[in-house]
Design a protein that fits this description.
heterodimer; A: 443 residues; alpha+beta; 2 domains; 10-stranded mixed β-sheet; two-stranded antiparallel sheet; 11 helices; B: 239 residues; alpha/beta; Rossmann fold; 6-stranded mixed β-sheet; 4-stranded antiparallel β-sheet; 7 helices; 30% helix; disordered N terminus
Chain lengths: 443, 239
Amino acid sequence: MMAPRNSILSGRLRSAVIIGGQGIRARKLRTFLSMISLFMGVLAVVTVQAGAEIAQRAMLSDVELQQGKDGTRVMYVPDTGASIIEDAMRGRTDAVASLGMNAIIGEPGVRPVNEGGMSFENAGRGPRGGDMWCDERGCYPMEQKGPEKPAGQAIEVRMQALTGDVRSFRPFRPVTGQWLDFGSAPSLAPRIVLNREAAKGFRMYQVPAEMSVQGATAHMTPQIVGVIDDGGYEPTAYIRIDELRSWLPSGTAQAADPYRGGGGLQLMMSPGTDDLEQTLKAKLAGTGLKAEQLQSNVINSRARMLEELAIMRWIFLGMAALVLLIGVAGILNVGLATVGERVEEFALRRAVGTSRMLLAGIVLSETLLTGLLTAGAAIGVGVVGLKVGSQIIGGKYPSLQGIEFPWQAGVAGVIAGLVAGILGGLIPAVRAARIPIATVMRA
Amino acid sequence: MTIPMSAAPIAAPPIQTPLIRLSGITKTLKGQDEPRTILDGVNLTVHSGQSIAILGRSGSGKSTLLSLIGLFDRADGGQYLLGERDITKLPERKAAALRSAEFGFVFQRFFLLKHLSAAQNVAMALVNGQGWLPRRKRKTQVMEALDQVGIAHLAKHKPPRLSGGEQQRVAIARALVRQPRVLLADEPTGALDTETGNLVVDVLLKATHRGCGLVLVTHDHDHAAKMGSVLSLHDGRLG
């Protein structure tokens, strides 16, 4: 009676796996040597894939926070057009303008601990040379105005005054507290949200709640309402522009010290807001601004970064594949030698009814199991290595703290092991299948 | 002289289809030298429960004949019927299935795998991709086969720990485990002393009592004499 086809297939598969397993157990040392030759190749694939995934996550997770989502249109407007922009932005959710400047929070009349708004890790390090200020055209020495201020308990932050909720363009991650409430009435004590670096400054230094902005009519008393992660490394505070305007009337931002980051607005617009852009350009042209001062561009940082990462990944995977090929040659070598030694066994198996196809399957299952075992070992080493590595150097590189082994690297390792098993086992499998029973059993 | 007549008429024996019928089988080996005809029109019929010994000088083609019967190889000419089925030109895949289902093989050199126990060596004939038996059923069949040849107590022993006779009995158990219709033995006593050889031949003959056909290739005339028929292969012909 004929067995059902799926039962035959299942029988063949199980037979191949059982006999393959017996073969591996009978030749442990050989299997181990094959695994060693293959291990470096699979580990290389796992490492490249894990590294690429981790790098991609680290880079892409912050790129939108810092630069905005892909597809967002960005336009830079000189400060002279600020009032037009602010009026146009009022009540809109599809476009947000931000006015950038530096602010000093803390004791008045002192030199901030991180003068220039640098990160607190670097604050106070290195010689204090002549101060520089930079814009998109380059960096310039700052003019010294009067005697140098004494050091004191104050920190300098980059201030971003917003016309609306910028998170639809830059999806900041909340850390503690709340985000700015643009629906409520403006407060005379401006509410600010700090980024993580700025919050670090407040933790490190005892800073009085007094904030000065160049050009403001008086010092302000800010209320810190929350902390967010904006992916940036410089201390930054976000503020509602209308709350700032109570202290810094429109048109005075230009007077705000350009050395302190004053100097224009950044306008972020959703895709499909061409009408708004055209209207704004027309109005701004009316104030005397030239067309070349009002260029806009579309953000595609994420797509560009993905493309660059993909190229790098393929280059490194290509190198890993070369190492893997050396391992394949090792398996092939051991496999051919083993088939040569097992001629009688294979002939006997054929004599008792094993088909050529199954015989090839047995040899392939052995090399595939070897590849899988190697993949398991390489993935294990990768997981442990990543854990140890993140503990050792995680302190230096915060992005490496607490990272998990990416599953994609595990999948790549398993695929590499299987591919190596197939490539290394194919020729020995064909040889095993061609062993003539009659010649061997008569010998 | 009168010939005594029996009172009752003798009943005619039932017409039984032979297990194996070889007719005009030829086989020529094509080596580097001139082609050499090994089998030249061999005719052979094997019935159920029949035991046949094939004698002949070394190189006379006994093993070649056994290879053709066991579907290790194909004849160049002639016809091979297994029961009613013509299997002269069977494709390899089907030949493997028939080898598994219909034939049991015993070789002079035992061909046991050293890294497997006696039971695992016997089970090899069951784990060959021709259907699938659950582990428990497989174990039962293996133990029955080992029991048939009287070495069930050695099931867990590996071949290096067994004597020559025990190893050959493991090989016979492997040949019997699928309950084949034909048992093919190629000089199974060649590597054994006389006493052990006799024991092995007895075990083989026991299988014929259950209806299994036995073809024994041997040099030993004493062992051949124990078989139901004795044939001699000479100049490629069986007589």
